[in-house]
Amino acid sequence: MPRAKIARKSTLVDMTPMCDVAFLLLTFFMLTTKFKPEDPVTVVTPASISQKLLPEADVALIMVAKDGRVFYGLDDQNKRLQLIQDISQQYQLGLTPDEMKKFSLNSTMGVPINQLKQFLSLSLDDQKKFNQPGIPYDSTNNELAQWIRYTVTVNSATGKELQFCIKGDVDTKYPKVRDVLKTMKMGNHMKLHLITNMKGLPAGTPAWEAAQQAGGDNGEEQQ
Amino acid sequence: MADVDLAQSSGDKRHKGTRSKKLSTRVDMTPMCDVAFLLITFFMLTTTMQRPKTMNLILPKDVEKEEDQNKVKESQALTIMLGKENKIYYYEGIGDAVAKDPVNLVKETTFALQGGIGDVISNKFKSVIQNSGGRDSMVVIIKPTDSASYDNVVTILDDMNIYEVKKYALVDISDNDKKMIDIKLNNGQGAATTQQ
């Protein structure tokens, strides 16, 4: 009896379709990625159960570092350029177009207006090493309020409301935050977004029960 | 040298006689695929952390006249003061009755949900519902002292969301409240020594 011959098949698989898919995904991710802007200070945000995402556009960011220094940032490079032009004109800083360009390249900065010229004359690498003293926001010299005022003017061109986000550090003392909130109140900006890390809903609490009833799957216990 | 000659001669022979062998146009895609997936992983990991979560905070308008302010009933209010080193001091009501006897009426607790501030809020809820019915009528007044941290404030605001407290207010601490915490702290120590 002749043995049935099993044809030996090659174990090599054609990788072309897989490669196609991989590159398709790669293109997608490359196009959607926005790189995290480099912050002048590291800020560890507190945690909350909130699921709301940061607004996508028209965001002004107020960063309060651990030591109470305040940094200010705007999400759009063109708006930042417009903003520094306005500020430069108003305070007669005499910034060169090159220095304004450098300002627009940094997403956040914390330098008092009188040091702005000196700060912007540095190269971008030196700016990173520069120890930024933070924007003054006390009642005698509230430059933060000025920045916000000019940003609102710049942003009004888009016709959309500016969204204010506050990113405070876990260890920031409350009086510093209170002063920032006071500044916001002064400008009549009552609606704020506090940037937080996400944490799970603690089991057994009303919010957890509501999530369970809604069929939410985020009721993990975390204490 | 002889080898070279031989090869040459055989090469010549092939050139004359047979056609050159057709090479497969197929290329091994595996390494390319590897690289693509490596890059995908990189971009995926960098994007996931992109848009952070936010908690909304709506600040109240400052009211000039005292008559315009919302009056809070003593029985429906819970005042929470955030002290230093993550300690919470709280009392029932808005402080008028408490000022007479801060040692006993101002209580100290922690940020823990079980056996801490969480229980305080749910107990208050129960008593408010018993007394006046409406769950939404409870008001929590949050007063951070100067030594509280931003984390404390966010945590307590978050607890309001966790316990679904509908009305809460972030208020500056008054001198009266500061005094009450001081009295509480000093007398608390004194009371402990007399007990021993």
SSE diagram, text form:
The complex is a heterodimer of chains A (223) and B (196).
Chain A: H1 16-32, E1 47-48, E2 59-64, E3 70-74, H2 77-90, H3 97-105, E4 108-109, H4 113-121, H5 124-129, H6 143-155, E5 163-168, H7 174-186, E6 191-198, H8 206-213
Parallel strand pairs in A: 1-6, 2-5, 5-6
Antiparallel strand pairs in A: 2-3, 3-4
Helix pairs in contact in A: 2-3, 2-6
Chain B: H1 2-16, H2 30-48, E1 53-58, E2 77-82, E3 88-92, H3 102-105, E4 107-109, H4 117-132, E5 139-144, H5 150-162, E6 167-170, H6 175-195
Parallel strand pairs in B: 2-5, 5-6
Antiparallel strand pairs in B: 2-3, 3-4
Structural summary, described in words:
The complex is a heterodimer of chains A (223) and B (196). Chain A is α/β, with parallel strands linked by helices. Helices cover 40% and strands 13% of the residues of chain A. Chain A has eight helices and six strands. Chain A has a six-stranded mixed sheet with strand order 1-6-5-2-3-4. In chain A, strand 2 and strand 3 form a beta hairpin. Chain B has six helices and six strands, in the order H-H-E-E-E-H-E-H-E-H-E-H. Strand 6 of chain A pairs antiparallel with strand 1 of chain B, so a sheet runs across the interface.
Question: In a nutshell, what does this entry contain?
Answer:
The complex is a heterodimer of chains A (223) and B (196). Chain A has helices spanning 16-32, 77-90, 97-105, 113-121, 124-129, 143-155, 174-186, 206-213, and strands at 47-48, 59-64, 70-74, 108-109, 163-168, 191-198.
Q: Quaternary arrangement of the chains shown?
A: heterodimer
Structural class of chain A: alpha/beta
* Biggest contact: A-B, 63 and 51 residues
Low-confidence segments of chain A: 218-223
Total strand count of chain B, please? 6
Strand order of the largest sheet of chain A: 1-6-5-2-3-4
Radius of gyration of chain B: 37 Å
Helices and strands of chain A, in order, run as HEEEHHEHHHEHEH
Q: Quote the average pLDDT of chain A.
A: 81
Q: Based on Cα principal axes, name the global outline of chain B.
A: elongated
Widest β-sheet, arrangement of strands of chain B: 4-3-2-5-6
